[in-house]
Write a structure and sequence with these properties.
This protein is α/β, with parallel strands linked by helices and 394 residues long. Helices cover 38% and strands 16% of the residues. The chain binds zinc ion.
Length: 394
């Protein structure tokens, strides 16, 4: 990703001052207006259960999925693709690959986006996305660039989250299938039941030379174009609304949440889009509750991760081709970028275990609340005391 070009500093400062004050004041008022779906706030007890649920948290930064991803992942390298594929196959998610050949400054390259959907028949979805490629450098030692924050860690967080969510999603699916119906009062469970989660892992995010509109985000540009021209079948519920132009796959995306440059100690996450300010607030609230309950470790000298103001301008990244086609975006990216950005130092040593765990837990709370899922004690690790209680009172 890249920072978009900005005007000279004095001009920028003036624009910033004129712009920021009203924005800060406006944010709270507009949240409800743009929130078009119910959000199921979990109790502190639920949050505790969810934190203790399987899969367990990593004990070191190179354990688990992350350990498999902390290698150079430059284009046409299929080892990581095969690993990701094996994780989702095991979980039973629907897999779609979109291989294509793209023209780059170093010649034609084969790219493949990886797309995983829990329930491909669901009419709506939230997309959680990151890029799995690492930046290509022609010469040693730069060609050993790993990109731990960019974006091995975000991809690993997504894999861990998918493992965590799968049993909860299956449980709800089974309950609805068996006719047990809606459980929660004052909550639109039908809405969440028709919303699935889709994981999109983009290839070719990085530029081969300098970041330009044609040398960057190869996978995202291809996929946004492909989905725009893929129309929905006549049986799809969106077709009943007689939209013009006819609805395409892009219309089934409620929100696209893009993770990038995460996993190091310092994160600063801003909202960039008015219509998803409310999602930013929900993620911030998840982090606040986890901190309040002592369920995340906040490192010494660590500042808050979620900024209150909305930033204008944005950052060039995989969301752009979707944003330009009207998709609602929540861009979760550290700004300023990690100090190690695009250097060889962006390896395992750039990552922080407490930060990775904190992200993991934030994403669990956020996803469960968005999808209306309640953490189940069935997949929570039980302590001895709990087991004694279960046996004594059942
Ligand atoms: Zn990068």
């Amino acid at each position: 990703m890249t920072r978009l070009r900005t005007p000279s500093f004095p001009l920028l400062l003036l624009a910033l001052l004129l712009y920021l004050l009203p924005v800060i004041a406006r944010r709270e008022d507009e949240e409800s207006k743009y929130q078009k779906r119910d959000f199921h706030t979990l109790s502190n007890e639920d949050i505790r259960t969810l934190v203790e649920s399987e899969p367990p948290q990593w004990n070191s930064v190179d354990e688990g999925h992350l350990g498999k991803l902390l290698i150079p992942r430059a284009c046409e390298f299929t080892l990581v693709q095969n690993y990701i594929s094996s994780v989702f196959t095991k979980l039973g998610w629907h897999e779609e690959k979109t291989p294509f050949r793209g023209a780059t400054p170093i010649g034609d390259i084969n790219f493949t986006n990886l797309i995983y959907t829990f329930d491909p028949s669901a009419p709506r979805k939230i997309i959680l996305a990151a890029h799995f490629d690492s930046k290509w450098f022609p010469d040693f030692p730069a060609n050993q660039f790993i990109g731990a924050t960019d974006s091995a860690a975000p991809v690993a967080m997504i894999l861990d989250l998918a493992e965590f969510l799968t049993p909860l999603l299956e449980k709800r699916k089974e309950r609805i299938r068996s006719g047990q119906g809606i459980l929660k009062k004052d909550f639109d469970e039908e809405e969440v039941a028709e919303t699935t989660i889709q994981i999109v892992l983009f290839d070719g995010e990085e530029a081969f030379k300098d970041w330009t509109s044609t040398d960057s985000i190869y996978g995202a540009r291809h996929l946004a174009e492909l989905w725009q021209s893929t129309y929905l079948p006549s049986s799809h519920p969106l077709n009943k609304r007689r939209l013009s132009p006819p609805p395409s796959v892009l219309n089934t995306i409620d929100h696209l949440v893009l993770l990038d440059l995460l996993g190091n100690k310092h994160s600063m996450i801003y909202s960039y889009f008015r219509e998803t300010d409310w999602l930013h607030s929900k993620m911030k609230f998840a982090d606040e509750r986890l901190q309040h309950e002592g369920l995340v470790e906040v490192e010494k000298n660590e500042k808050e991760w979620f900024g209150d103001m909305r930033m204008r301008g944005g950052i060039g990244d995989d969301h752009l081709p979707f944003l330009h086609r009207g998709v609602s975006i929540f861009h979760v990216i550290s700004n300023p970028f990690p100090k190690v950005w695009h250097t060889l130092a962006d390896d395992a040593s750039a990552l922080s275990l407490p930060a990775l765990r904190r992200w993991n837990r934030i994403l669990r709370v956020f996803s469960c609340e968005y999808l209306g899922l309640e953490p189940s004690t069935a997949n929570a690790k039980r302590t001895n005391d709990e087991l004694v209680r279960i046996y004594l009172f059942s």
